[in-house]
Amino acid sequence: MEAISVGNNRVPFPLSIRLEGNVIIDLGTTQTILPEEYTQLESRNTFLRHNEEILCFAFAPDGYYGTYGNLAQMNFLVGYDFQKHTVSFKPTDYTKLHRSLV
After folding, report:
1. What is the rounded CA–CA span in Å between residue 50 and residue 82?
2. Which terminal CB of the chain, N or C, has fewer other CB atoms within 10 Å?
3. Which PANTHER family does this chain map to (predicted)?
4. Can you say whether the dihedral through the CA atoms of 19, 25, 29, 30 is positive or negative?
5. Are 41 and 59 in contact (CB under 8 A)?
């Protein structure tokens, strides 16, 4: 990953951790694991409620490599543009999308 763009705002990935193949987009991993210096979190997909009394943190820090886990991908439409070498994430309400497909 070189940067994350939201609208017209581009946030570069820190040079100290910019390695080739440094982030894995993984549906099989629950948590999102990002280098500590790159984790500014939002509540949308940051916490997972286990029950009324237990709330789990869905992110974990790591040294160099990142994994974008399946909890953070929930309710996002993920687009892959292989020509531009980009991945995009669009907020999506999958409960509404699923109903339209049935």
Report:
1. 37
2. C
3. ASPARTIC PROTEINASE CDR1-RELATED (PTHR47967:SF66), OS07G0603500 PROTEIN-RELATED (PTHR47967)
4. positive
5. yes
